[in-house]
Specification:
The complex is a heterodimer of chains A (about 120) and B (about 110). By secondary structure, chain A is mostly beta strands. Chain A has no helices and 12 strands. In chain A, the strands form 3 sheets. In chain A, strands 2, 5, 6, 10, 11 and 12 form a 6-stranded mixed sheet that branches. Chain A has a 4-stranded antiparallel sheet with strand order 3-9-8-7, with no helix packed on it. A two-stranded antiparallel ribbon of chain A has the order 1-4. In chain A, a hairpin with a 4-residue loop joins strand 8 and strand 9. Chain B is about 0% helix and about 55% strand. Chain B contains no helices and 11 strands. In chain B, strands 2, 4, 5, 6, 9, 10 and 11 form a 7-stranded mixed sheet that branches. Chain B has a 4-stranded antiparallel sheet with strand order 1-3-8-7, with no helix packed on it. In chain B, strand 4 and strand 5 form a beta hairpin. The radius of gyration of chain B is 13 Å and the shape is globular. The chains are: A mainly beta (about 120), B mainly beta (about 110). At the A-B interface, strand 5, strand 6, strand 10 and strand 11 of A face strand 5, strand 9 and strand 10 of B.
């Protein structure tokens, strides 16, 4: 069974602070895929990143960075120098082939509120 | 050009009615999905189609029936609507399974 845990439900930060969103996953598969999505107040879901289980390289894209650690089954997301436009719900998701039938299973999301 | 478009964006209807939500993607993707997002923002997959073939059918009431007339379209028909069906329904598509999914803007369904 798939499971994605995003423990922090709501996180408030003051603008320009860094914020890290934790994502812990469970899988029996050796090949799986991890994703992060952003859902701003307007409601659409925006793809941010995909990581394959065999690629543990960390990724930086502008103010966003991701830390993938298979040893702890975590795929954490950091926003550096947060801005008001970063206020959104952020979802971590897992897809696995053998045991999950390629379902994209989402965590419950982290509501990030950036206070100006 | 909208990549994944679904209509309508808002749908208010009475209990017991039948309604449909349409979805189209112009990305040339092979796989399409329907997701349901409840009031607590929890996203759960309902159906997945690959090349018009149903490959994932989660435990949803059989009042929900997806239809894929071609690879670019995946419509959702709901019979005998109930109050608990109120949610935001998202259509999505991906190149193939296990690649990133691109979502439509969502359809907010309210059953009264």
């Amino acid at each position: 069974a798939q499971k994605v845990t995003q423990a922090q439900t709501e996180i408030s930060v003051v603008e320009k602070e860094d914020v890290t969103l934790d994502c812990v996953y469970e899988t029996r598969d050796t090949t799986y895929y991890l994703f992060w999505y952003k859902q701003p107040p307007s409601g659409e879901l925006v793809f941010l990143i995909r990581r394959n289980s065999f690629d543990e390289q960390n990724e930086i894209s502008g103010r966003y960075s991701w830390n993938f650690q298979k040893s702890t089954s975590s795929f954490n997301f950091t926003i550096t120098a947060s801005q008001v436009v970063d206020s959104a719900v952020y979802f971590c998701a897992l897809s696995e082939g053998n045991y999950g039938n390629n379902r994209l299973a989402f965590g419950k999301g982290n509501q990030v509120v950036v206070i100006p | 050009d909208t990549a994944v478009s679904q209509t309508p964006k808002y749908l208010v209807t009475q209990m017991g009615n039948d309604k449909s939500i349409k979805c189209e993607q112009n990305l040339g993707h092979d796989t399409m999905y329907w997701y349901k997002q409840d009031s607590k923002k929890f996203l759960k997959i309902m159906f997945s189609y690959n090349n018009k073939e149903l490959i994932i059918n989660e435990t949803v009431p059989n009042r929900f029936s997806p239809k894929s007339p071609d690879k670019a379209h995946l419509n959702l028909h709901i019979n005998s609507l109930e109050l608990g069906d109120s949610a935001v329904y998202f259509c999505a598509s991906s190149i193939v399974l296990n690649t990133e999914a691109f979502f439509g803007q969502g359809t907010r369904l309210t059953v009264v």
